[in-house]
Amino acid sequence: MPAAALKPKPLPTQSTAKRPVLLDLPYAPVEKRPLPAGRPRDWYVTHNRRLKAMRLAIALLDSGVYLPGQARDETIRSTAELIGVRPPSDTTCRMVRALMRYSR
Fold this sequence. Notes:
Largest sheet: none
Strand content: under 5%
Radius of gyration: 17 Å
Number of helices: 4
Structural class: mainly alpha
Shape: extended
Number of strands: 0
C-alpha cells in the first residue's frame, strides 16, 4: 500500500470548506522579545503598527474577509476587539488593507 494512502485526510481550510471556518479563539500570544535599543522613536512606532496590522490582516483572512474592499474600518475594528487588541487608528486600518492588497 502506498504511503500516501496511509496519511489521514487533512481538515478543511477556509478555502476548501463549504461554510466559513470560525476563528479559533483564544490564540496563545507569541512570546515577546525586547526590541533593539538605540533606534529613533519613529522606528518603534512604525514597527509596532506593522505588527498590529499584520495580526489584524491574518485574523480578517481567517474570518473570510479576502478583499481590501470588504475590510472597512468598522470591520477591522470589530476584528481587533474580537482578537483582543486595542482599536486601530485610521493609519493602521489603511495598512491592513494595503497588506491584503499586496499579499496576492
